[in-house]
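Regression check, 1,3-dihydroxyacetonephosphate case 252:
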Amino acid sequence: MRTPMVAGNWKLHNTRDQAIALATGIKSQTSDVTDVEIVVAPVFTALNAVADALRGSSIKVAAQNCYPQAQGAFTGEVSPQLVEDIGCNYVIIGHSERRQLFGEDDAFINRKVHALAETGLGTILCIGETLAERESGQMFNVLRRQVCEGLKGLGIESMVRVVIAYEPVWAIGTGKTASDQQAQESHAFIRSLLDELYGAQVAGATRILYGGSVKPDNVDGLMAQPDVDGALVGGASLKPADFVRIIKFQKV
Ligand code: 13P
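Current build output:
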């Protein structure tokens, strides 16, 4: 009932030409995929070109960030409306790199959630605990805070365009993946929070992606977990063969 989503977060990589080549390579190797929603998230400077290159295909395009205002004196920022204007479908917000390196807190991320709800764009809201938080027994509190504060005030009608990405910070770019059981435990908890906030129907319909060192050799086990509905892939999404193998995960 939940269409799996595999999203590639290209982070700060690829020139415009490299991004077009990567996108078209993925497109040509996934024309047979009908049951997985594929998303790529290029750097801002390549977003327009990649959106153009993928127009007419079923592959969706995401921005990696946005500012929660439509326009104005906000030097250096990009609004959801402008992202939508060039044909994007989603915006990733709350990524741990933005939280840690750029000081974004739950209140600011919540403003982005609301700004995106004003548009036709989908939201991929990233959450996840650090190693210190996990080891000190704070994981569930942190996830609760990130979900409740992140979605604060968002009406139930907007949830249809929200995807949650659980990315334990200690698994990002480290080669250290959460075990299948660790991922399932967190995903089930996140779904229970959605149930508390929005009820069983929304909880059952909302996709929860796992992110953090997803690779061809661990995707099948992760995707076999009942509450894992897809993957948000960093490093491996820059390698076409790896990303395509992740998209074509095996049902075990
Ligand atoms: P890696 O797959 O490189 O660990 O990155 C995960 C990530 O941050 C996706 O948003």
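Comparison notes: The mean pLDDT is 97. Residues 180-198 form the longest helix (19 residues). No diff flagged against the previous build.
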